């Protein structure tokens, strides 16, 4: 095989086997160059919601191509962006009224951070600190890395990262410590915003906490005039059982970031939604109060058309029923590992199931991670454990039989690890 010039993300090229090419995608499957169908049990890094190449979304993309390519998004606007914004306001928790477009989850969060700081700056009472939760992940740009968990991923860049107030993760029974830490941080009067993944901390190890805590954090934020930024980049579009995870806590964050499932996973697009108050703080005859942010491909019309089609899918198809059915499937299939001593922290949030394989040395760099991946790959399953944390986050079209195959492979892997054969 000739050596490829491609440098892949989160890939140690010295240790990885040569990569197979994927020739096409279909429903819950990736089909490789040899025609083998691989079950995409992690929705291609959490982006595919309904299934690969949903017909209505692909048709909308084709139709949009007849009229648009990229269009500058200052001075002019276009219908896909306008229609999508109206739809997002309708779908999002009540009280969010403005939509700012960008291209990825990371940029959606960067925009949110800038909105929060701009809000206080333009009001003439600047605040400069951001509070976050331990084990959080918000992206891989310098700003979002600053707010995420520090570790091997960002050690090289540490000197450039800014300081944040880090709240301890609310381990069951220790929720009060999280609330107290937030209250204490807020007392400085300097915390512009709490940036938080609602209910599930994804890349940090599928760590889950309850809606009551999220609601309580919102109350504390309100008391101190601190904004809440909900990073729903992963949790949005049904993953946790509701369209947005914030709904379960019955809260409206001041700023909401969405990306991954926004187009059903078909094209890259992100949106940062905010309240009228935040928009108004930037609306002024004084030009220096303008929101100074843009990326070249802001609100790409074809991506917006894909997202509009995704909203139609949510309106016209029984997506919530599919989400509920998948959540039930995950619960019944996970149950077999509840009392299994080879696993710990068996947990679920809606369509997301996760469990920790008990190994002597866990954590993200646990050597068991790549071995598990190879085990799953050999069984035509795309499952990428976060170290010793195994999780399944399939598209909503996945069948019970598909899911059973994934769970059987997890069971088998645990058996092999126990016998020292994996
Ligand atoms: C994936 C993710 C991001 C980053 O999104 P990208 O599109 O990869 O930049 C941000 N926040 C959360 C919670 C995510 O899961």
TrEMBL record:
Subunit and interaction comment: Homodimer.
Gene Ontology MF terms: adenosylmethionine-8-amino-7-oxononanoate transaminase activity
UniProt KW keywords: Aminotransferase, Biotin biosynthesis, Cytoplasm, Pyridoxal phosphate, S-adenosyl-L-methionine, Transferase
Pathway(s) this gene product operates in, as recorded in its UniProt entry: Cofactor biosynthesis; biotin biosynthesis; 7,8-diaminononanoate from 8-amino-7-oxononanoate (SAM route): step 1/1
Protein name per the record: Adenosylmethionine-8-amino-7-oxononanoate aminotransferase
Cofactor(s) for this UniProt protein: pyridoxal 5'-phosphate
Reactions catalysed according to its record: (8S)-8-amino-7-oxononanoate + S-adenosyl-L-methionine = S-adenosyl-4-methylsulfanyl-2-oxobutanoate + (7R,8S)-7,8-diammoniononanoate
Residue ranges of the TM segments: none
Site feature (Participates in the substrate recognition with KAPA and in a stacking interaction with the adenine ring of SAM) residues: 10
Coiled-coil ranges from the UniProt annotation: none
SUPFAM superfamilies cross-referenced by the UniProt entry: PLP-dependent transferases
Post-translational modification N6-(pyridoxal phosphate)lysine, affected residues: 260
Pfam families found in the cross-reference section: Aminotran_3
Family indicated by similarity: Belongs to the class-III pyridoxal-phosphate-dependent aminotransferase family. BioA subfamily.
Domain of life: Bacteria
Primary localization: cytoplasm
Organism: Mycoplana ramosa
Keyword Ligase recorded: no
Function: Catalyzes the transfer of the alpha-amino group from S-adenosyl-L-methionine (SAM) to 7-keto-8-aminopelargonic acid (KAPA) to form 7,8-diaminopelargonic acid (DAPA). It is the only aminotransferase known to utilize SAM as an amino donor.
């Amino acid at each position: 095989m000739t050596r490829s010039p491609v440098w892949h993300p989160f890939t140690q090229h010295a240790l990885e086997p040569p990569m197979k090419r994927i020739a096409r995608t279909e429903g819950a499957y990736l089909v490789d160059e040899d025609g083998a169908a691989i079950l995409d049990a992690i929705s291609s890094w959490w982006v595919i919601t309904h299934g690969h190449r949903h017909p209505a979304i692909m048709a909308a993309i084709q139709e949009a191509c007849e009229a648009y390519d990229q269009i500058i998004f200052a001075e002019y606007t276009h219908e896909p962006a306008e229609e999508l914004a109206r739809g997002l306001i309708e779908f999002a928790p009540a009280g969010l009224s403005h939509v700012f477009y960008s291209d990825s989850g990371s940029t959606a969060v960067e925009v949110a951070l800038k909105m929060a700081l701009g809000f206080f700056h333009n009001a003439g009472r600047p605040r400069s600190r951001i509070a976050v939760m331990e084990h959080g992940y918000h992206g891989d740009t310098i700003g979002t890395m600053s707010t995420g968990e520090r570790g091997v991923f960002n050690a090289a860049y540490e000197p450039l990262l800014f300081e944040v107030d880090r709240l301890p993760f609310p381990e069951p029974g220790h929720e009060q410590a999280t609330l107290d830490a937030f209250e204490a941080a807020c007392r400085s009067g300097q915390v512009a915003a709490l940036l938080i993944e609602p209910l599930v901390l994804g890349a940090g190890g599928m760590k889950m906490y309850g809606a009551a805590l999220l609601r309580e954090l919102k109350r504390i934020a309100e008391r101190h005039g601190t904004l809440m930024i909900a990073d729903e980049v992963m949790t949005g579009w049904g993953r946790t059982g509701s369209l947005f995870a914030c709904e379960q806590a019955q809260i409206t964050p001041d700023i909401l970031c969405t990306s991954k499932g926004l187009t059903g996973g078909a094209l890259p697009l992100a949106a940062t939604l905010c309240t009228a108050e935040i928009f108004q703080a930037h609306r002024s005859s004084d030009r220096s109060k303008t929101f100074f942010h843009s990326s070249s491909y802001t609100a790409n019309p074809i991506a917006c058309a894909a997202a509009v089609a995704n909203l139609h899918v949510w309106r016209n198809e029984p997506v919530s029923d599919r989400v509920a059915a998948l959540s039930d499937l995950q619960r019944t299939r996970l149950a077999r590992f509840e009392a299994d001593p080879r696993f710990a922290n068996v947990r679920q949030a809606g369509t997301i199931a996760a469990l920790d394989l008990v190994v002597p040395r866990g954590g993200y760099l646990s050597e068991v991670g790549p071995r598990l991946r190879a085990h799953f790959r050999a069984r035509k399953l795309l499952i990428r454990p976060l170290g010793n944390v195994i999780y399944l986050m399939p598209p909503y079209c996945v069948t019970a039989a598909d899911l059973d195959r994934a769970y059987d492979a997890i069971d088998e892997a645990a058996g092999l690890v126990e016998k020292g054969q994996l």
